[in-house]
Amino acid sequence: MKILNDDELIKAIVIHERRRRAFEQSGLSETMAFDLAEQMFERDHDPMDDRRICFECKNFNSQNKKCMDPKQKFALPYILQRCGGFNLKGVKK
């Protein structure tokens, strides 16, 4: 993992905190939310890691915790994985 400069570190901390809060609001315990945010921090800073979590995907329905992509059989909201149908939330095509 590369060493972050001060600006990158501040941005990473803000993102980590935002993710942790979102995970807690979705029902994860404080410990699980923190650990998942940590895993995602490491993923974000590893250029070889292309895994995602369903929670980040436009196809994920957070109400019923299901994937709305008909090609996907189920959702794993909080597990880093590779998915051919992944579509990042907040990104316009």
Write the layout of secondary structure elements.
Layout lengths: L5 H20 L4 H15 L15 E2 L4 E2 L26
Helix pairs in contact: 1-2
Please characterize this protein's 3D structure:
With 93 residues, this protein is mainly alpha-helical. The chain folds into 2 domains: 1-48; 50-93. Helix content is 38%, strand content 4%. A hairpin with a 4-residue loop joins strand 1 (60-61) and strand 2 (66-67). The protein is globular, with a radius of gyration of 14 Å. The model has no long low-confidence stretch (mean pLDDT 93).
Relevant terms:
mainly alpha, 4% strand
Would you tell me the structural class of the helices and strands? mainly alpha
From the spread of the alpha carbons, the general shape counts as: globular
| Count of beta strands | 2
The biggest beta sheet, please? Answer: 2 strands, antiparallel
Tell me the count of domains: 2
Oligomer: single chain
Structure in a nutshell:
Helix content is 38%, strand content 4%.
